[in-house]
């Protein structure tokens, strides 16, 4: 009783793939990272090596697992399919230029949360699985009475990170929060008055705070 819970949640977006370079929509298609691009993560790798993580989670897709392997963290890793990027269905592998005159695509751009991707995933379905993962994680942290503060790393995709940040940090929206490939961010949380509150948002390697 009375324990004050804290959590530092580290997100890392996977490294660059060929489709990322070509600005193609990449959701559940399982492309590998470009190995030569992983050297851009050297500073992040050195920063994370100095930390201890109580939990590490990753999307099951290759681009995440290959990026995590490059970071060479010593912590045990759990693979969770709920951390996948949105399923872009018929739009997988296509570019904005190829889609910009598609009425369904324009509708999705205007209101992705309440629109459906043809033969893919709706915004509501995407949000539901992401919420389910983090609700479960936050409850696990809360039930751990041995440690009042824990550090968790999540290797995932740009859409997942942008959605979660926009949900937890009121000053950011899905479209205005940009996270680059191979970039790390840290969100610090405190449990107060019956809910998890985000107290800060920082880039990793640590520079200036972005909140």
UniProtKB/TrEMBL annotation:
Q: Which CDD domains match?
A: HP_PGM_like (cd07067)
Q: Which Pfam families match?
A: His_Phos_1 (PF00300)
Q: Does the keyword Hydrolase apply?
A: yes
**Which SMART domains has this protein been placed in?**
PGAM
- Presence of the UniProt keyword Hydrolase in the record: yes
Name the UniProt key words of this record, in alphabetical order. Answer: Hydrolase
Q: PANTHER family from the entry?
A: FRUCTOSE-2,6-BISPHOSPHATASE TIGAR
Q: What is this protein called?
A: Histidine phosphatase family protein
